[in-house]
């Protein structure tokens, strides 16, 4: 039976639960010499797992390890050398993850020179092939960059949502980027190149680029439907939120043809600049709040709220396409949200039937509803139930 979400609150936001949806669940985590953890072996539970404690004790580090073991890659920007405990040679991160196919074991060894990942004892050669396998939706304070930061952050976010649902997108992004780099290399050569010498790359950019754009636009349509739902249920039906897509080339029904033509037309100026100025790597993903560009006009709280709404929409989209509830990780979510938005958010958490990990300096700020498990973090040690 489909549980009907109560109207007019954040509560419904992440939910709209189909109780039958399968789930990803982290059952156990072990760490050795990871960040400020020397040795840790910890079971986790369904429902809400609250990781709490004073500043600088290792709450975010623990969340990062959970993300790493499920996504098989660290938070963006974290280097291997930073993950290994100061003064140590290597880290070990091990997780037992329950998913549709049963219990899986992920085993990651981290050294300065690289990571070695095994899934059920088999070496994982291509992490991207497993993208979205144990889907995690992550919310970090820095995610506000999705709204406030540069165009690259917005394109990357949209592409990551598309990729979790359509894994082929990852390879296409890589092939596309390679074609653009090759074209840029030709454009940067000292000797004058003709448009003929980049024809091969133009063709690839147009063909793969059209597929990338097509998927992005499809995803934005779904996103916009979900965002309207989320803001409505959120009690904020007076706010309209939209994702927009701006083409770096003149749009036509045949997108590949439109890219081809734009590359040809821009060839002289691209040659002068030494790089490719049209194509999906230059398209603009934007967020509009009540029709205004959120990157310029949204307040901190509005931006944070928008990111939460995007993540809520992302969960729904993922569930709709795959039938699976992702794991939700939230680091330090409450700062900058006013009382109304906080209470919407907490209701949301208690109604989301997937596994949730949330960090806080004060566990009492997270209402105890439903299944609730607390973990006190103190200088790289964790006390369960405290
Ligand atoms: N590679 C490492 N080796 C040892 N310690 C590290 C390593 N990387 C980070 N740390 C330490 O881990 C500590 C805890 O960091 P973390 O960000 O997890 O704290 P936190 O509990 O989330 O704090 P806050 O409440 O301020 O967000 C920091 O003091 C940091 O110096
Ligand atoms: Mg932290």
Low-confidence stretches: 1-20
The main pleated sheet reads as: 6 strands, antiparallel
Q: How are the strands of the biggest sheet laid out side by side? A: 3-2-5-6-7-8
User: What shape does the CA trace take?
Assistant: globular
Q: What is the share of helical residues?
A: 25-40%
Report the span from N to C terminus.
36 Å
Q: What percent strand?
A: 15-25%
What is the CATH H-level superfamily of the largest domain? RecF/RecN/SMC, N-terminal domain
Gyration radius, in Å: 22 Å
Give the ordered list of helices and strands: EEEEHHEEEEEHHHHEHHEEHHEEHEEE
CATH T-level topology of the largest domain? Glutathione S-transferase Yfyf (Class Pi), Chain A, domain 2
CATH class of the largest domain: Mainly Alpha
Counting DSSP H or I runs of 4 or more residues, the number of helices is 11
Ligand types: adenosine-5'-triphosphate, magnesium ion
Number of strands: 17
The number of distinct structural domains comes to 2
| Backbone structural class | alpha/beta
Please tell me about this protein's structure.
The chain is α/β, with parallel strands linked by helices. The protein has two domains: 21-135 and 326-386, P-loop containing nucleotide triphosphate hydrolases (Rossmann fold); 146-323, RecF/RecN/SMC, N-terminal domain (Glutathione S-transferase Yfyf (Class Pi), Chain A, domain 2). The protein has eleven helices and 17 strands. It has helices spanning 59-71, 80-83, 144-148, 151-165, 168-188, 199-233, 255-265, 267-273, 294-297, 300-322, 339-351; strands at 22-23, 25-34, 37-43, 48-52, 90-99, 102-111, 114-119, 122-123, 136-139, 241-246, 284-289, 292-293, 324-325, 327-330, 356-360, 372-378, 381-384. Strands 3-2-5-6-7-8 form a six-stranded antiparallel beta sheet. Helix 4 (151-165) packs across helix 6. The longest helix is centred in the middle third of the chain and has 35 residues, at 199-233. The model is unreliable at 1-20 (pLDDT under 50). Magnesium ion (MG) is lined by residues 59-60, 331-332, 359.
């Amino acid at each position: 039976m489909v549980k009907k979400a109560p109207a007019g609150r954040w509560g419904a936001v992440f939910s709209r639960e189909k109780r039958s949806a399968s789930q990803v669940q982290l059952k156990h985590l072990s760490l050795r010499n990871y960040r400020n953890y020397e040795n840790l072996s910890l079971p986790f539970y369904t429902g809400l797992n609250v990781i709490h404690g004073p500043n600088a004790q290792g709450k975010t580090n623990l969340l990062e390890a959970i993300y790493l073991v499920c996504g098989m890659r660290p938070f963006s920007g974290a280097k291997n050398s930073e993950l290994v405990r100061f003064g140590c040679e290597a880290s070990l991160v091990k997780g037992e993850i329950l998913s549709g196919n049963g219990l899986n074991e992920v085993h990651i060894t981290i050294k300065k020179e690289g990571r070695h990942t095994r899934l059920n004892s088999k070496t994982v050669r291509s992490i991207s092939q497993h993208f979205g396998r144990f889907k995690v939706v992550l919310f970090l304070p820095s995610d506000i960059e999705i709204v406030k930061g540069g165009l690259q952050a917005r394109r990357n976010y949209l592409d990551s949502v598309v990729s979790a649902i359509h894994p082929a997108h990852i390879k296409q992004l890589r092939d596309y980027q390679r074609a653009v780099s090759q074209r840029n290399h030709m454009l940067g050569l000292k000797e004058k190149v003709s448009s003929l010498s980049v024809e091969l790359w133009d063709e690839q950019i147009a063909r793969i680029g059209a597929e990338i754009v097509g998927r992005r636009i499809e995803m934005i349509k779904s996103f916009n439907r979900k965002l309207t739902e989320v803001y409505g249920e959120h009690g904020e039906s007076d706010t309209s939120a939209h994702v927009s897509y701006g083409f770096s080339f003149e749009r036509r029904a045949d997108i590949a043809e439109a890219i081809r033509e734009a590359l040809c037309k821009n060839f002289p100026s691209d040659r002068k600049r030494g790089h490719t100025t049209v194509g999906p790597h230059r398209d603009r993903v934007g967020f509009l709040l009540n029709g205004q560009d959120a990157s310029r006009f949204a307040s901190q709280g509005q931006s944070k709220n928008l990111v939460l709404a995007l993540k809520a929409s992302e969960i729904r989209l993922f569930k709709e396409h795959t039938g699976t509830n992702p794991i939700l990780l939230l680091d330090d979510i409450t700062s900058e949200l006013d009382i109304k938005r906080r209470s919407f958010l907490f209701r949301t958490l208690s109604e989301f039937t997937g596994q949730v990990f949330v960090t806080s300096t004060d566990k009492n700020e997270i209402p105890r509803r439903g299944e609730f498990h607390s973990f006190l973090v103190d200088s790289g040690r964790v006390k369960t139930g405290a």
